[in-house]
């Protein structure tokens, strides 16, 4: 059942309160019950407290979020109403009509497929030996680099900057400035001093351009990541453009990350790799044959 359907039904039940239609019999006990005591009867089907607790515990996450603050009575009234509607749908043969029949088949397939993915994902067990072996075999993946940078900003839309009363810096002028700073740094000028006096990022400029340590898994722009992790200690990069600025980077240190710091990342990477292997094997079993090969490339209603 779709989320909005569940919300609609919850809303209907809440709006109706205990005044459900007369032909629907829903009983809810007010007395605290043992786990094997019946607390609700819907159309002759009885549910114990334990069964209701289990139902609430194992609802799909999106439904748990909607019901977690409901009292047991409110939940039972809404659940009873849903069950009653479902019973009416069966009586009137809704599942034999289109589009409901096909939608149900698809939803069942989707549910089973996603459940299987969750099951095998949670069952992936990576041994300590496998994690250590991966760490030892891939030292470059677990290097941290300490990076300093000089920021040189420019106005991506000069007309807008001028209209807003901001300084207008053309991209060509920013590039020329960054190239000059790079040349000075390569010639032996103090990089920290260059950063303090020229960087447009005040926070890092105050620290001589120091940005701290970067890891390969950090969410860096590809243009930046490809440069800084290819550099050696003491190297200074040519200006690197990203967004509305140029950077001049210097790598000041490299060090291996401790295994303990990388262990969780390694386990996730190995689990994902093994999961993909299993999924690829399943995909390989799928065979698609069509007498009309051109039909396979068509989008219904578009070509």
Structure, explained:
- With 303 residues, the chain is α+β, with helices and mostly antiparallel strands.
- Among the domains are: 90 residues, no CATH class; 118 residues, Chitinase A, domain 3, CATH 3.10.50.40.
- Helix content is 51%, strand content 14%.
- It has 13 helices and seven strands.
- Strands 5-4-7-6 form a four-stranded antiparallel beta sheet, with helices on both faces.
- α1 packs across α4 and α6 crosses α12.
- The N terminus is likely disordered.
Question: Summary?
Answer:
The protein has about 300 residues and is an alpha+beta fold. It contains 13 helices and 7 strands. Among the domains are: about 5-90, no CATH class; about 140-255, Chitinase A, domain 3, CATH 3.10.50.40.
Q: Strands of the largest sheet, in order across it? A: 5-4-7-6
Count of runs of 4 or more consecutive helical residues:
13
- Low-confidence region ranges: 1-26, 28-32
- Beta-strand percentage range: 5-15%
Structural class: alpha+beta
Tell me the radius of gyration: 31 Å
CATH fold-level assignment of one domain: Chitinase A, domain 3
Sheet with the most strands, sense and barrel status: 4 strands, antiparallel
Note the gap between the termini: 32 Å
CATH class category name of one domain: Alpha Beta
Describe the global form. Answer: elongated
Q: What string, H for helix and E for strand, traces the elements in order?
A: HEEEHHHHHEHHHHEHEEHH
**Percent in helix:** 40-55%
Count of beta strands: 7
């Amino acid at each position: 059942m779709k989320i909005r359907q569940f919300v609609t039904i919850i809303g209907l039940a809440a709006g109706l309160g205990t005044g459900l239609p007369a032909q629907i019999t829903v009983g809810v006990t007010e007395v605290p019950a043992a786990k094997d005591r019946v607390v609700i009867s819907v159309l002759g089907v009885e549910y114990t407290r334990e069964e209701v607790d289990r139902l609430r515990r194992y609802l799909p996450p999106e439904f748990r979020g909607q019901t977690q603050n409901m009292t047991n009575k409110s939940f039972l009234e809404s659940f009873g109403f849903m069950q009653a509607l479902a019973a009416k749908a069966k009586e009137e043969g809704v599942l034999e009509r289109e589009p409901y029949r096909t939608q149900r088949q698809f939803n069942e397939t989707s549910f089973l497929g996603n459940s299987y993915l969750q099951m095998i994902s949670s069952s992936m067990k990576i041994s300590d030996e496998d994690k250590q072996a991966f760490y030892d075999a891939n030292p470059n993946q677990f290097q941290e680099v300490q990076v300093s940078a000089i920021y040189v900003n420019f106005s991506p839309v000069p007309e807008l900057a001028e209209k807003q009363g901001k300084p207008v810096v053309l991209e060509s002028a920013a590039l020329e400035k960054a190239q000059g700073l790079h040349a000075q740094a390569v010639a032996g000028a103090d990089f920290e001093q260059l950063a303090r006096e020229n960087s447009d990022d005040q926070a890092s400029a105050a620290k001589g351009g120091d940005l701290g340590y970067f890891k390969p898994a950090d969410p860096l722009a590809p243009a930046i990541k490809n440069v800084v992790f290819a550099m050696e200690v003491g190297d200074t990069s040519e200006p690197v453009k990203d967004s509305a600025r140029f950077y001049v980077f210097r790598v000041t240190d490299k060090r291996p990350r401790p295994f303990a710091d990388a262990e969780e990342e390694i386990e996730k990477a190995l689990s994902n790799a093994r999961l993909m292997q299993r999924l690829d094997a399943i995909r390989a079993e799928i065979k698609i044959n069509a007498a009309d090969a051109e039909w396979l490339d068509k989008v219904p209603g578009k070509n």
